[in-house]
Amino acid sequence: MSNYRIILADDHVMFRKGIKNILEKADTLEVIGEADDGLKLLELLKNVTPDMVIMDISMPNLRGLEATREIKVILPEVKVLILTMHKDKEYVYSAIAAGAEGYLLKEDADTELFAAIEKIRHKEPYVSSLLSGEMTHKLIHDRQKGKLTSLADPLTIREREVLKLISEGQSNKDIADLLFISIRTVEHHRANIMKKLKIKQTASLVRYAIRKGYIS
């Protein structure tokens, strides 16, 4: 039997290395790639196709929820396990709605990681034991029946990227350089974001970004 191929995506290097060390203790699992943000993960997936991606929600440039949606469009057969510190049920809902097969808390990784991978590998969903319950099972059932949609967020993926960088204190020029777009395009995105969210101040944008998990 060939190894089950996994890509890890987390912006905390030491945590990522720790998970890799844990996984490589299993003879049937193989870590074939790593990324420290969502955009780099999508670039990596252009060259290599894993069986599973294990990733955090809060990452630079493109967070895990948006990356999950993109993966399910370009590589729907690839399984996604969200491995995060976020305990809010809103995140569980959003992850499942985005297409993730599993949601595991980092604090449970040492005891539940292999169980989560094994269940997902055999086409069963997995949610961290601290979060599982009737509500979670209903969310999974609704997703499988096509009844579940993402929580309302009017922003496009590009607008979320721009919002995240704005919230991190990047200037319009810095954002333009990072995203390989013009300063005028950045200004256009900023105006659209404020209009959609009905926000007029940068401080309010930052609070929105924190509430949505775009930044810590």
Helix count?
Answer: 10
Principal-axis shape: globular
Number of domains: 2
| CATH fold naming of the largest domain | Rossmann fold
Gyration radius from CA atoms, angstroms = 18 Å
Average pLDDT, rounded to a whole number, is: 86
Unreliable runs? none
The biggest sheet, with number of strands, parallel, antiparallel or mixed sense and barrel status, is:
6 strands, parallel
* Helix share bin: 40-55%
N-to-C SSE string, H for helix and E for strand: EHEHEHEHEHEHHHHH
Got a strand count?
A: 6
Strand order of the largest sheet: 2-1-3-4-5-6
Oligomer status: single chain
Using the coordinates above, name the CATH class of the largest domain. Alpha Beta
Tell me what you see in this structure:
This protein has ten helices and six strands. The longest helix has 15 residues, at 183-197. The mean pLDDT is 86. Helices cover 50% and strands 13% of the residues. It is of the alpha/beta class and 216 residues long. It folds into two domains: 4-144, Response regulator (Rossmann fold, 3-Layer(aba) Sandwich); 157-212, Arc Repressor Mutant, subunit A (Orthogonal Bundle), CATH 1.10.10.10.
